[in-house]
Design brief:
By secondary structure, this protein is an alpha+beta fold. 19% of the residues lie in helices and 32% in strands. Strands 3, 4, 5, 6, 7, 8, 9, 10, 11, 12 and 13 form an 11-stranded antiparallel beta sheet that branches. The radius of gyration is 19 Å and the shape is globular.
């Protein structure tokens, strides 16, 4: 995210900054070509990701188990990151400046998990921008990331929205031709189970290196403040991952392999050091035999850092 020189300022409640209007986001964004990204997943990487979250579930660490070690359900964001970086670097080919690209804010995340990532996997991630529409804060671009294994089998499928704050489209809306299905059973009923998690002063630095996701607004105060932020902030995916851990512990008996889908919206920043509060509601059994669990993550000010959180749990499939 970065401030842009121009005329109209647009306040963003999502990041707490004011950005200015630049050239419209072109429809050519939909034609952006990004080569597939290949990653070899190693045990050190998957263990480090869980450790960065303070999630010490044996399924992520115990190599003496009869079943193989697996990655945290949100580990999929790690191999996806380089594909996202590649798409940003290609923006100049369609007429977007680096400053315009950096106004993009990760607004929503929705990942379907066919199986958990395992150490030893060779994964290929393909990225396509599938929609571009105008909403109040700016242009909304929808990206689809499909990750497959060495046998060509789909491991995860992520649909995420980015909002280019203060920048409209060039006037033509392009809708997602195959949006994710609506998650059934999303109503919050009953009393939530509540968790309080301390976020250390260095949490973003730890997450950056353990996830291998580097964006300097999370680790460099000068860059963060130049982008209009009050200070470095915790990654949205780290905040979401804490919510996933809480749901696995509260509603899945500590069994991450039951997680089939994770969805949520990013709505407020988490500063460091601070404390987050996670509310996990009882699950709702749906007609297809899965269970939908609503959750939210609140920052220290009580604002929803992750709102409309939903996790779909299913039967053991591994």
């Amino acid at each position: 995210m970065a401030s842009l020189p121009s005329a109209i300022s647009v306040p963003s409640t999502a990041v707490g900054i004011t950005l200015t209007k630049a050239m419209p986001v072109p429809s050519a964004l939909l034609d952006l070509a990004v080569d597939p990204v290949i990653h070899d997943i190693d045990l050190r990487w998957t263990m480090a990701y869980a450790a960065a979250l303070g999630d010490h579930n044996d399924r992520y660490f115990d190599t003496m188990r009869s079943n193989t070690v697996v990655a945290h359900p949100l580990f999929s964001v790690c191999p996806e990151w380089n594909a996202i970086v590649a798409s940003r670097s290609q923006s100049s080919t369609i007429g977007m400046t680096t400053a315009e690209v950096l106004t993009g804010v990760h607004a929503t995340h929705d990942v379907t998990i066919h199986r958990l990532v395992r150490p030893g996997d060779r994964l290929t991630t393909q990225l396509q921008i599938v929609a571009l529409t105008d909403i109040g804060p700016g242009a909304k671009a929808t990206t689809r990331l499909i990750t497959t294994d060495a046998d060509g089998q789909e491991v995860t499928a992520t649909t995420q929205d980015a909002i280019y704050l203060g920048i409209p489209t060039d006037g033509t809306d392009h809708l997602d031709p195959m949006p994710p299905t609506v998650i059934a059973g999303s109503n919050r009923t009953g009393d939530p189970t509540t968790f309080s998690i301390d976020i250390a002063a260095g949490a973003a630095h730890t997450y950056t290196d353990c996830a291998r996701i580097w964006n300097p607004i999370h680790t460099d105060r000068a860059v963060a403040q130049a982008a209009g932020l009050p200070d470095i902030i915790l990654h949205g995916t780290a905040t979401l991952a804490h919510g996933v851990t809480a749901v696995v512990n509260a509603r899945a008996n500590g069994r991450p392999e039951l997680v089939r889908r994770i969805a949520g919206r990013f709505a407020a920043m988490v500063r460091m050091p601070s404390m987050i509060t996670i509310n996990v509601w009882p699950g709702t059994l749906t007609p297809d035999g899965t269970t939908t669990v609503p959750f939210e993550v609140l920052n220290a000010q009580g604002d929803a850092a992750v709102r409309d959180g939903l996790i779909v749990l299913g039967e053991l499939r591994e």
